[in-house]
């Protein structure tokens, strides 16, 4: 469970990106975070994984208060958060399997022999997940030979290979066509549900959010202006 209380971020430029946001996401809940550009969606996700330092407020994941951690403890806590990015963030010169296994490791080795260090069970799990997203026939393809939809599926599997407690997903479909966007959203939601993960999906597209998420939180100027079921969302929000 993710518990955010009074989260506030003022950037050094003076921009108040988050203004006292409180939010609880239980395990197994897929929440879409919507709002216009500049509402604070990315800042919220980045305050959770501490790529951005909040000005005030707390973030807890299970029993761990993330906002207190530093150094090694913070790195360990980040391993519990699977990230999925708009631009996929794959290592282009590595294969699908190598990219996926880097999720288990937490970093990409500088020489290929690191692949051999993985136990068979990890490789099998990677195959199972790649099969689940329809990419098991492409394990040896380099990332730079994949389409956008395929790259994002690799990104999803890489995040799941971390065995995360939480998925943080930042505009996963912003670079994809509408049909592929729906496929990717469906996969993210199904896999999060199967594994009982809490998920925050930062998404610009309100229709996609309504179609796939069970809960929608609307941000505007750093404040929550809507929190409810997709059906309760009115055009004024
Ligand atoms: P969204 O993801 O909803 O588009 P952001 O979190 O990116 O919103 O931005 C929220 C506000 O914070 C905006 O006013 C933006 O200009 C500001 N902001 C975001 N990142 C920075 C930064 N690194 N430095 C200063 N201001 C920032
Ligand atoms: P998907 O819907 O599975 O993501 P697409 O329909 O977008 O796939 O792409 C079909 C095929 O075209 C894929 O097998 C992919 O290898 C190839 N392809 C698409 N975009 C690119 C690209 N930017 N670079 C290389 N190959 C690409």
TrEMBL record:
Keyword terms: ATP-binding, Cell membrane, Membrane, Nucleotide-binding, Translocase, Transport
Cellular component GO terms, alphabetical: membrane
Signal peptide annotation: none
Domain ABC transporter residue range list: 2-237
GO molecular function list: ABC-type phosphonate transporter activity; ATP binding; ATP hydrolysis activity
Annotated coiled-coil segments of the chain: none
Domain of life of the organism encoding this protein: Bacteria
Chain ranges passing through the membrane: none
Protein name: Phosphonate ABC transporter ATP-binding protein
Shown residues in whole-protein numbering: 1 to 237 of 282
């Amino acid at each position: 469970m993710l518990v955010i209380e009074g989260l506030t971020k003022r950037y050094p430029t003076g921009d108040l990106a988050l203004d006292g946001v409180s939010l609880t996401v239980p395990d197994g809940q897929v929440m879409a975070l919507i709002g216009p550009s500049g509402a604070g969606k990315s800042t919220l996700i980045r305050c959770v994984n501490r790529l951005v330092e909040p000005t005030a407020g707390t973030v807890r994941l299970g029993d761990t208060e993330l906002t207190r951690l530093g150094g090694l403890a913070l790195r360990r806590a980040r391993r519990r958060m699977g990230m999925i990015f708009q631009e996929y963030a794959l290592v282009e010169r590595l294969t699908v399997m190598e990219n996926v296994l880097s999720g288990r490791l937490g970093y990409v080795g500088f020489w290929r022999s690191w692949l051999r260090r993985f136990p068979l069970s990890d490789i099998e799990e990677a195959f199972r997940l790649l099969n689940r997203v329809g990419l098991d026939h492409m394990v040896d393809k380099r990332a730079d030979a994949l389409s956008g939809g395929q790259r994002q599926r690799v990104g999803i599997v890489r995040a799941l290979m971390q065995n995360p407690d939480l998925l943080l997903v930042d505009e996963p479909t912003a670079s994809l066509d509408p049909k592929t966007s729906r496929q990717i959203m469906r996969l993210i939601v199904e896999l999060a549900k199967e594994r009982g993960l809490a998920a925050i999906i930062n998404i610009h597209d309100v229709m996609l959010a309504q179609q796939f998420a069970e809960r929608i939180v609307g941000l505007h100027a750093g404040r929550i202006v809507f929190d409810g079921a997709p059906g309760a969302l009115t055009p004024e929000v």
